[in-house]
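Note to self: user wants both folds in one dump. Writing first protein now.
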Amino acid sequence: MAIDYRIAALGLVALGGLVAGVATMNDKPQPVAGTVRASTAIPAQPRATAAQTAPPDNAVVAASPGAQAVAARAIAAPPTEGKAGASAAPNPKFTHFRVGNRNVKRILIDGERVWVGTSGGVIRYSAVSDEYRLYDMRSGLRADAVVYIGKLLGRIAVGTYGGGLSILDSAGDKWETFGTSDGLGDEFVSDALVASNGDVWIATGSGVNRVRGGALRERAQWDLYTAEATNNGLPSNRVYGLAEGTNGDIWLATERGVARFQRGEWNHWNHGGGPGPASDAEPNPSAVKADAAVFASPHGKQKAGLHPEQAGATGNPNFTVSVTVDGAGVVWAGTLGSGLARYDGSGWRYYTVADGLPGNHVFSLHEDARNRLWVGTDKGLARLKDGKFNVMTTQDGLFTNAVFAVASMSKGMWVGGRGGVARIHDLD
C-alpha cells in the first residue's frame, strides 16, 4: 500500500546561513563477556580546536587566497536570527527547509519548537511564529559541527565534533560546556541519553561515559568505559549511538559492532553473529569520499561515522552508526554499508536492499508514537510494516535521499539530511 505523504517544505534561505554566491558541491548471536573496569582517572587534555575552524560539509574552497577569505567569512557568519519565510516550491504539495551547504545531523521536536543540529550550528525554529535563531561558536558553542541534539536533565544539549557537550540554560542564552577536564572521554560527542535510573551516558570517540545520577558537575561521578578498561567487552572506543532497553540495559553502536551494558557486565556482537550480514568487506579509505583527513588523524574513522554522508558503497558489517530499541524490546542497529540488523534476544536478522531497504547505509533509526520504525538511509526513508519496507524518496517529496535525521510529531515528521529538511504532514 502506498503511503500518502503531504509535505510542507519552507524555503528557508536564511535558515542555517545559506549564502548566495557560495558554490556547494539469521546467525546466532555470539556474545563476548567482559569484566567491567570503569576508568575514573581521566587526565585533562587540550581542547580540540581543529574541527572548530573546519569549513562546513561539502563547502567549495575558492581558488585564490583572497576569494578563500571572502568565502570563509561568508560561510562563517550567517544571520543568527530572523524570520524563516516561505518560498514557492516545484510542487504545491511540499516545500523545503534549506540549510545551504550544510548537513542536518539531528532533529529534536520540543513542543512548538524544532531544534535542527547541523554541521554549521544548531537552529531553533518556531513552527508558530516562523522565527529562527542560530546558535554557533559566536553564541558560545566550542565547535560549530553539531552531531547530537537532545534533552539532558530537562535542558537542550548538543554534542559537537571537537567541542565537547554543551547544555543551554533555561533562558536560552548561555551554554555550559563539559569537556575532557570535566571527565568527558574526548571532545567528539556523537550521542547522549538519560537512563531510567538517572545516569547520563555520553558516546565519544574515546569510549563511553556514564555520569552516575546525572551529576555532571561532580567529577567523582564520571566513569569512562573503554575497550581496554572492559577487556574488549566494549569492542571499540568509537561509539556513535546509544539506546536503553526495556529492562534498563544500555545498547551501544560502535565501529566494531553492537555492545550491551547489563547489570555491570559487557557483551558485544560483531561479524559472524551480528550486526551485519555475511560480508568480508573491510574499512577502506576509498569508502569515504573527498576527505583526505578522514583516515589521516586520530579521529579519522570516527569522522567517517559522524559524517556518514561521505561514505561510498564499500560495506563493513561491524561499522554500526545507529541503534534503537522498540517498544517490544527488539534492538535495531544500522550499519554503514551492510544494512539494518534486528536482534530479538535470541538471534539476529538482517535487512538489505535485497529485502526492499532503499539503501545499505543506515544513518538513522526512529520509532514514532505509534510504534512504527523509520529507517533513514543513503537512498531514502523507509517505514517497516508487516516485514516490508514502504519507501519514500525525493520523487515523493523528500528534500534529499540521504536521510541523517528523523523526528516525529503527533501527525507528521521532520526528515533531515544533506542540505536541508522536509516537514511531512498527516502521515497515515
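First done. Writing the second protein, which came from a different request thread.
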Amino acid sequence: MRAEGRRKKEEGRGKRKERFFFFSLPSSLFPLNSKGSVLIMTVWILLMLSIFSLSVSHRASQELIFGRWVRDQVTTRVLAKAGIERALLELQLDKFLTFDAFNESWGSNEEAFKEIRLQQGTFTVSCDQPLIEAEEDTEKKEIKTEDPETEDSKASELKAVELEKAETKRYGLCDEAARININFADEEILTNLLLASVKKIVALDATKIAQSIIDWRDADDAAQQAGAESSFYGFLPTPYKARNASFESVEELLMIRGVTREIYNQIKNDVTVYTDGKVNFNTASQTALQALGLSPDLAKRLVEFRKGTDGILGNEDDPAFQMVEGITPALSAGSAFSGEDFAQITHAVGKQMVGVKSQVFRIQSIGRLNRSGQDIQTRVTCVTKRNGMVLYWHEGYE
C-alpha cells in the first residue's frame, strides 16, 4: 500500500512539472523519460529568445532612426537661425542712413548669404525676387533661320538662357516696406492692388473687397456702401464679428467677405501689417507700384530703371532714390519718362504713402544638411525690425 502511494505521488509530481514547462504542453511532446527531451526543450527556448531579440532589435532600430531624424532637424534649424543672425549683422553694418536699396550689403550679397558652410551643413538667405526677370512669352518667340536644325538649336539655347535668368535668386533680405500695408492703404490703393495682382477680377468685386477690408479695421460698425461689417459676418454658417481694429496678420484677410483662398494666394506676397505704411520706392514691386497709382507700363519701366545699365538688380550701378523729394529730379535726368509719367508719380507721392527708407525686413533662411545623398533642410522665416525685434516667426514653408 505504501509503495503504491509513493508511486502515485511521484506520478503527480511529474504531471505538475509537465504543466509548469511550456504552457502545459502534453507530455507526449516532451516526455521526461526521453533522452531527446532536453535537446527539444533547449531548441524551443532558443527559438523564443531569438524572436524576443529580433523584436527588441527592430524597436531599437526604429528609435535610432527617429533619434537621427531629430538630430538632423535640430541641426538644420540651428543652421537656419545662424543665417538669420548673419542677416541681422548685415543690417547693423548698413552704411546708408537715409535710404535703403537692393544694392546694399543686406540686399544682394552672395558672399554673405549663399550656401555658407558651418561644420557639416550650410545656410542660405534669399528673397524670392529674381535678379533678372524672364520674358513671359519666351516659348512664343520666333527665331527665323534657313536651317531648321539651327533654328531648333537656337530656340533651345534661348529658352535655356531665359530659364537660367528666371531661376536666378537674389541672395539677401526682403524689404517689408516693398509691400502694401493693409492697415494704412485707402480704398483706391487697395482696389488698384487687387486689380494688379488678382487674375480676372473685375473692378466692382475689387471695390467690394477693398471697402470690406476698411470696414474690418475701422472702429465703427457702419458698413460702407459695398463693404461688410459684423452685421454680415454674424449671419454666416460659422458667425463671427469684424475686428474693428487693425489687422494683426495677413492671414486675417481670409475672413474678409469676397477674399477666397485663390485671391489670398495671389495677393499675400504683396501685402503686410508690420510697416509704418510707407512703401519704399527703391524696392517696391511692380504690383505695389501699380497699387500706388502707376500704370502697368510705368511701373514696369520704373522697375527696369532701378536695375541700372546692366539690367541686373543689386549691382553698384543701380540708381537709388535718396529722398522722396528727389524721385522726380532723378527720373528727369533720363529720357524714358514723360510728363504723364511724372503726373502719376506726383499723385502717388502726394498720398503720403511713399518713402525711401525701411525699418522692417523679412528674412528667409534655409539650413541644409546632406546625409548619404539625402537633402535635409529647415526653413525659418521671420519679420524683424532693424534693431532685431522679431515681429513674426515661422518655421517651415508658408
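Dump finished. Worth passing along: The mean pLDDT is 83.
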